[in-house]
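Continuing the batch. This is chain 6 of the set; chains 1 through 5 are on the previous pages. Same settings as before, nothing changed between runs. Recording input and output for traceability.
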Amino acid sequence: MPRGRYNRGMNAICLVIDRLHMGYLGAYGNTWIRTPSLDRLAAEGFTFDEAFIESPELGRLYEAYWLGRHAMGPLAADTSCSLPALLSARSVSTRLLTDDPTVARHRLAASFGQIVELDLPEPDAPARTVEDTLLGQCFAQALEHLDSAREPFLLWCHFRALGKAWDAPREFRLANCDEGDPEPPETVAVAGKMLPEDYDPDELLGFSQVYAAQVCVLDACLGVVLDWLTTSPIGRETLLVLTSARGFPLGEHLRVGQCDGALYAELVHVPMLFRIPNGLGASDRSNTLVQPSDLAPTLSEWYGGPFESPGGAKSVFPVLRGVDGGVHDRAAILGYGTERAMVTPAWYLRQASPAELFSRPDDRWGANDVANRCTDIVEAMAVTLSQYEQAMQPSCDPHLEPLDPILLTGRD
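Output for chain 6:
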């Protein structure tokens, strides 16, 4: 279908929904949760299938988002080259809206023209309506700011409600129950635990049902934003980016919620969707590897200016226009402590003790560790990861050697 025209835009909204599990979105294969607004976003926008965060540690992650530098690189001393600082210098009105103190007080947040930190009381029971949920209140604030926005603008929203409280109305929880299922839990406390090998499947089902209800709340909130984009004169000139800072484990590796930060796909593989107001890339998708640092050069290009990235971050607009084969052929992830991960089109290496290797893209959630059967691949991936991390250091050449074909295709 036609990819649409490309022209530099006026405004942008970046929605970072923390703890959003990619597998709970229809655009990424989910079939049991009804999310019409998220489906609409995928139909009207462009979907990246292979977006991986650079670190689950928010401080490091936002260095990548706003500086266009990989989280493996050193902290930059000069904050004047951050995305919000550069856009402000181009007379773009920049505003950060968040309910997460870690993001609001990040050292680079001061580069925004305005910071709005939402201090919302934690609920002790499911909300009566979507509007009463934490996400509903966050989105209401976003819409209020949009209605008073001065063009050109960037509204960056980081909402942690999916990982802060599960306060979806009860009917949302029941909507995801099949006949014969046990009643979903009433708690609003976000689950965070390691499951035993002989865990109770009904307990995990309850977690999944309540989490699914939160995704449905997000869907309802997103629908209001999509309506604003299509009915407001300002909205019709506004780019929307939806992504997640981190996923939310739901039992894939005996982990539920925030546990040890192990770099499995359910934590680091996240959604990333773009809705371009002129229809560029509508209903299209790509399996090129992208990371958070790519957002800085992408948004800079949207506003008509260059962005110098010392770490190899790239604008995704060539992919959206269909004139470039991809952004990256590898992605590296900085974990807690010494844990690291490396992603290529054919493999996922979790460098821990012991190392784990998963075949991609078929084994999306890392169900089958093949490290013992593919020791040569483990070694090649480990070398590639080491070279990548070295290239991100200052005074080093960021040029990366071409990958061995077996790391790209899985075949010699």
